[in-house]
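Sample pair:
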Amino acid sequence: MSRFTLCILLILLQLLSKSGLSQYAPQVGIIGTTAIHADSSIIGLWATDVVKYKLGYKDISDTSLGLALVGTPDFAIGKTDHTTFSLGDAGSIELTFDHEIYNGPGPDFVVFENGFSFGGDSTFLELAFVEVADTSGNFVRFPANSLTDTNFQVGAFGSVNASKINNLAGKYIGNYGTPFDLEDLKNIPNLNLGHIQKIKIIDVVGSLQQDFASKDANGRKINDPWPTPFASGGFDLDAVGIINYVLKTNTTQFNSTQFTVFPNPINENAEMRVQGNLPVSYYQIYDVLGNEICRTDFISAETNYKIIAPHKAGIYFIHIVSAGAIYVQKFVVHSLN
């Protein structure tokens, strides 16, 4: 490829990005959506406690209207029930859980709001930033992206296209949660992805006015319905569910030298081995969406096992449970075709 051709391709890629043609996962009911239903079996825990919260104004540009009024913080605890806590403009809430969250296979937790659809991918969506904190107590924000057009303000009951939104809570309509994967934070220094203890939700002020605008990870203004100068203004939090968690009596190690999975990569349905120097209680295999593919219990103290690889190509995680600890290894299955 010539240097001239390469330059043209780079320019085209930049133009496509700036024009907002890049797409993320679409709304519920459209192929490619990543929405998780509230009744999904992969959700094992729900928020149990509110650490603290801060109500935002109904309209941050007119504080005389007062603070958001709908719901109480405890409405965010437990499973989705369609009772919500309205944060108001730039309001926030911190939640904890019975057990720590860890960076496992696929999404690790999911946030539910009460958005609704106008049909297709166009919906009324109120958005929020999401942050997590490990045992240090310091919060780190997921890198959010918004490609929604910023030439015109989305009105109070305007529509936002889910495929223009990434890593912002509220991307999906009510009863369907927005998933978050701790893998997106793997390059954050000193953040322990094996021991996440708190989640913070912060309302996005969708104003295009410079004095009030919330911005995404690229410094782009996030355009969502605004102003919403009524009692239920801002992000309406329904629930937060946890997918990957570790019992407090257990420890989790990733890519541990205690166990080796080989060959890796491996072909579909081929025989692979798990070899280690510790007795295994059982193992589980998950796909990247967090779905359990299989589980096998052991009654012996062997440390060398034969396993048949999944029948479908993809990325998988094997959880090996030994003496109350969980050891996680990633492996890849190749297609025979």
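The radius of gyration is 22 Å.
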